[in-house]
Write a structure and sequence with these properties.
Elements: H1 7-16, E1 47-51, H2 63-72, E2 76-80, E3 105-109, E4 121-125, H3 128-135, H4 163-199, E5 203-204, E6 212-216, H5 220-233, E7 239-243, E8 246-252, H6 260-276
Parallel strand pairs: 1-2, 2-3
Antiparallel strand pairs: 3-4, 5-6, 6-8, 7-8
Helix pairs in contact: 4-6, 5-6
Length: 278
């Protein structure tokens, strides 16, 4: 996996019993994209985890090229697309996830861009038999023969809340065009943030390709003070992160309620905070 992939991937490997130390991190570019040419020779059972939507920059690994190299060696390709997978729904962003359909499994969240409750995670596996073989559970008191799909055969939990209802309601309400509009709007708003903050003299650390913007206000100490001032002001909220050694403000635009006016008010508050901190 790329050196900038989300730490939850390593945690998942630990939970599976494979161990976090068996991960081979690969070099990435300045945006956090895995360098496909750095994939080492693959032999034996291997999972290549690619990232669709870096949590800091929004960057997406070269999925098509990685799938080609990995599949030639018999490896399984998994896409961690917690929020970036939704780029496929937006006409102007779909090219970023070219090759997505070539992977073997995918994961994304609905609680981010669909704005539904937490723990609404979605997993997709090309081979449904592989998923069922890994997840199904049997016991004398459990009905296993049914004409209906048994959800516990496809998830780690034997029982859980019906989060699928929340996800279905959001999808049904928005429809394909509504989801596309939501993604397009948030991406445009992120660009608006970046352009206005850059014009005010702030440093934008990433190429704004999705809904993430990284902003530096100077050295780490000053950037941290500016972020504290922004949070105290209360007009908007954004957290601190460290990107490839640089402390930054992390803006993530993901609400269906966000408007251009909200962006402009937030930009004004951020600039005021930056000007108030020595």
């Amino acid at each position: 996996m790329g050196g900038e992939i989300h730490p939850s991937v390593a945690k998942a490997l630990g939970l599976l019993g494979l161990g976090r130390t068996r991960v081979v991190p690969l070099p990435v570019d300045a945006q956090g994209r895995m360098l496909a040419e750095k994939i080492p020779p693959i032999s034996g059972p291997t999972i290549v985890c690619v990232q669709a939507g870096n949590v800091n920059t929004g960057a997406i690994d070269p999925i098509a090229e990685i799938c080609r190299l990995a599949h030639a060696a018999g490896a399984w390709v998994h896409v961690d697309g917690a929020f970036g997978l939704w780029a496929a729904a937006a006409p102007s962003r779909a090219h970023l996830v070219a090759g997505l359909a070539d992977a073997d499994s995918w994961a994304t969240d609905a609680h981010k861009w669909l704005n539904v409750p937490y723990d609404s995670g979605l997993a997709f596996v090309r081979d449904p038999h592989a998923l069922q073989a890994a997840m199904a559970i049997t016991a004398e008191y459990l009905p296993t023969q049914s004409e209906f799909r048994n959800p516990s055969d496809f998830t780690p939990e034997l029982s859980r809340r019906a989060r699928g209802v929340d996800v279905w309601a959001a999808l049904h309400s928005l429809g394909r065009s509504g989801i596309a509009q939501l993604i397009e709007a948030n991406c445009a708003q992120a660009r608006r943030f970046a352009e206005k903050l850059a014009a005010a003299g702030c440093t934008i650390l990433n190429d704004v390709v999705l809904n993430q913007v990284l902003v530096s206000f100077g050295d780490a100490a000053r950037t941290t003070r500016v972020i504290a001032a922004i949070q105290t002001d209360g007009t908007c909220w954004a957290g601190v992160t460290v990107w490839q050694g640089r402390t930054a403000l992390r803006l993530s635009v993901s609400s269906w309620r966000t408007t251009e006016a909200d962006v402009d008010l937030s930009v004004a508050a951020i600039i005021r905070a930056a000007q108030s901190v020595a």
